[in-house]
Amino acid sequence: MSAFSRRRLLGWTGAGAAAVGVGAVAGCAAAPAAPGPAQRVVPFRGEHQAGIVTPAQDRLHFVALDVITDDREELRALLQRWTAAAERMTAGAETTPGGATGGNPNSPPDDTGEALGLPAASLTLTFGVGASLFAKVGLDPSLVPPGLAELPRFAGDQLDPALSGGDLCIQACSDDPQVAVHAVRNLVRMGFGTTAVRWSQLGFGRTSSTSTSQETHRNLFGFKDGTNNLKAEDPDGLRDQVWVPADARPAWLAGGSYLVARRIRMHIEIWDRTSLVEQEVIIGRTKDEGAAFGAAAEFDPADFAATDETGAPRIAVDAHIRLSSAESLGGVRILRRGYNFVDGSDGQGHLNAGLFFIAFMNDPQAQFVPMQRALSTKDVLMEYIEHTGSAVFACPAGLGEGGYWGQSLFEA
Amino acid sequence: MSRRTPAAVGLAVLGLAMAGCTSTAPVDAGAGGPITVAAADDACDVSTTEAPAGTISFDITNGGSKVTEFYLYATGGRIMGEVENIGPGLSRQLIVEVPEGGEYETACKPGMVGDGIRGAFTVTGSAQRSVDTDTRLAEATAGYQRYVNSQVEALVPKTQEFVDAVVAGDVEGAKALFPIARTYWERIEPVAESFGDLDPRIDGRDDGEPGVEFTGFHRLERDLWQDGLQPDSTAIADMLMDDITELANRVPSVELTPLNLANGAKELLDEVATGKITGEEDRYSHTDLWDFRANVDGSQGAIAALRPVIDERDPALGPLLDERFAAVDALLENYRDGDGFVLYTALTPDDIKAMTEAVDALGEPVSQVAGVVSS
Ligand SMILES: [Cu+2]
């Protein structure tokens, strides 16, 4: 029994006394939250969904949801409510006008309130659907896009079903973790009864840059990871590798993209006992500058043909950057948008940490699958990591005025 | 169990009017005369399924071998009237005021469990042209007070049976009666918890708080399932009976408001989410699903009493509540085992997740009711 219960105030006794307190709270918090500085608002609507080529923010809250109704109209209504709330939140506003403190004091507030007074902080909300959604709500099987085909099992996969799959996903990225968490929490709450959380992941420290204006950040192994990422400033690369073409079938995904998510647990303590030279050989880059072996600076092109004085390849045949390079994958590239994560410790005193890998592409089978197959079978890094979660989602194109998440699919 | 602090504010005393109560005395039955109900173990034959609005009388005869109950329900499971504890061979009368026409349901509950044998019942016309909001709200609290009263009426004898078994050293008998007696407690837990002195004595758990004696249901649960009956088990059992008797005497003095009902309905679901889904409440017996069922019943009882007000102010909310309560009911039915439920220890993580989802889904619309009734 706690010494003080907030609930008692509103409970079966003392209603009169409680009303005074509630009224006072409502009165002083009635002023609306100040909108954030305009430059930190990422437009919600546009040709493509925000949160894909948007310069990668520093924080992530990703959630995969199961749909628990078979009523398609109920789901559609939720998607419309979600869209309205999402658009408001990305502009730095509450889910509804006055939602946090402006309503009936006897009702739980519409908006949970932890983002009151915080700026939009570059919040983006990106929506996707999984292959399992279609049968569940009776959508025509011909609408399942080819890219949602199940990923093959890769060598060393230790996938936990409780961290994999999902009928829907929402990726919230922001410069402020509280803003991202607020967005997901409120959308999840609106979905109770229609959707249920399957799994979620918090991330920090973007591990890749999606714009040439950004520095390359480091992963938890201490390496720059994403130097050769596709960037927003490369429209031809995005067209060829990221966006689903306008003439693709099914048409509802035209202009969209596929999101591949992999939760990669890193065995941090083991890695930390590895010598610097071995770490660098495994990756194929120097740790301090991030330059490919044989190159001087981070962005100097990697020369995979170069050999050392003994005739051996300067960048090892099984180096991480070689195996994942466009050169060794027939020109295939992806747009990586991963985040570091630390989910506390694992009960054995080791960090439960790693990389929450997110990548966007227009053909997972032709892009992610060959890359991961090469890495899972040849990459020495596999000794230090374990893939524990996996999911693929189809993210439709951006929304025009009045459009809602999933509209192109639900009205296909 | 309560983690709540003792009530800081004194309870106003309110004489509880026993509206809609049962009677064995002959009564002028009003329009059309009494409707007869032939109840059996597998039948509930109501002589007519239509009556004009106003005072409606049912003469119920139990021709079966099980103790039965008879109910008249309105939309959303709102109890218009009920007769409990009709033994085999006995007849009882239910006289109920139904001011408004509409679709109702009759039900016999042989064995006093489950949804019972339901039948449609149509009330025609209207005995009351318009009901203002204050009247509706007053009817809601009065209706819920009737519900609480009926639960207390069963709580006292069922606790007595349980206590008698403990005192007699009948461990198996006491174990079987434990979840049954608790059902009536858990249905009205927010009311019971308003007695800050009684609640910890009756339903406290052993959280190792120094200076707090561990008594009540859960202490006996520990003795029965884990430690074996102790030298003081009899004294603990007698004290439980005294406390329950005192509770029954004090319940009629609880002053209820519509807001209390709405918040109580939500609190009961919070109890489910924090105590029953986690298996925390009945940690020795693992009979948590009985309590789960009872908390949901109690929540529905409070919401049902408010239903006319809800329907008037937010027509979309009532059907949504019906749907979400039905989803929880359907889910719980999967875990039925005879007249009771499987033990918590038989549940898989997937079972628990499904229950959490259903209670989350129900909790959101239930949390809206307080705002609706107070707007
Ligand atoms: Cu309790």
UniProtKB/TrEMBL annotation, chain A:
Superkingdom to which the source organism belongs: Bacteria
Keyword set includes Flavoprotein: no
Domain Dyp-type peroxidase N-terminal as annotated: residue spans: 49-204
A Gene Ontology term for the protein's cellular component: cytosol
Catalytic activity: heme b + 2 H(+) = protoporphyrin IX + Fe(2+)
Transmembrane segments: none
Coiled-coil ranges per UniProt: none
Chain spans, region Disordered: 88-115
UniProt cofactor note: Binds 1 heme b (iron(II)-protoporphyrin IX) group non-covalently per subunit.
GO terms for biological process, alphabetical: iron import into cell
Keywords carried by this UniProt record: Heme, Iron, Lyase, Metal-binding, Oxidoreductase, Peroxidase, Signal
Family indicated by similarity: Belongs to the DyP-type peroxidase family.
Name of the protein: Deferrochelatase
Organism annotation: Pseudonocardia broussonetiae
From TrEMBL, chain B:
Alphabetic keyword roster: Signal
Subcellular localization: Periplasm
Record domain EfeO-type cupredoxin-like: where: 14-123
Leader sequence segment: 1-19
The organism's place on the tree of life at top rank: Bacteria
Any Gene Ontology CC annotation: periplasmic space
Residue ranges constituting the Imelysin-like domain according to the UniProt record: 140-368
Pfam families xref list: Cupredoxin_1, Peptidase_M75
Chief localisation class: periplasm
Classification via NCBIfam families: EfeO
Protein's name according to its UniProt entry: Peptidase M75
Annotated source species: Pseudonocardia broussonetiae
